[in-house]
Design a protein that fits this description.
- With 123 residues, the protein is of the alpha/beta class.
- The chain is 42% helix and 13% strand.
- It has a 4-stranded parallel beta sheet.
- The protein is globular.
Length: 123
């Protein structure tokens, strides 16, 4: 698979957006289930809690953009500590499009952005 095809095969989507036919495998990467979202409506194929930021890191970050760079560094370290789950996610991507589903309001500063960077080899 070429780099561009891999880029396009990993999408990001908020849990509050409706599933779409082109989402492929929908993977929730948050530790907590999105508030107010019914499981039947979410269309989640796989919930990878182990790859979510730790509770401590999530609370420390608090979605504060001023802490973004340090959050990215710490979260990347946590992700790499779960190599088996990361390999499992990479395997899903090899088999077709994957949408990383997250619940944060900030679309630029959240765990899914960091996860995508790691999967694309940017971190």
């Amino acid at each position: 698979m070429s780099g561009k095809a891999i880029d396009e095969s990993i999408k990001l989507k908020r849990a509050y957006e409706s599933p779409a036919a082109d989402d492929g495998t929908r993977v929730l990467i948050d530790r907590l289930w999105p508030r107010g979202v019914k499981k039947i409506d979410a269309g989640i194929d796989c919930w990878m809690k182990e790859l979510a930021p730790s509770t401590e890191l999530r609370k420390w970050f608090g979605h504060d953009p001023a802490r973004w760079d340090e959050f990215r560094r710490r979260y990347a370290a946590e992700i790499h500590a779960h190599g088996d789950e990361l390999d499992r996610l990479r395997d899903l991507i090899r088999h077709g499009p994957v949408t990383l589903v997250y619940s944060a309001h900030d679309e630029a500063h959240n765990d899914a952005v960091v996860m995508r960077e790691i999967l694309l080899g940017h971190r």
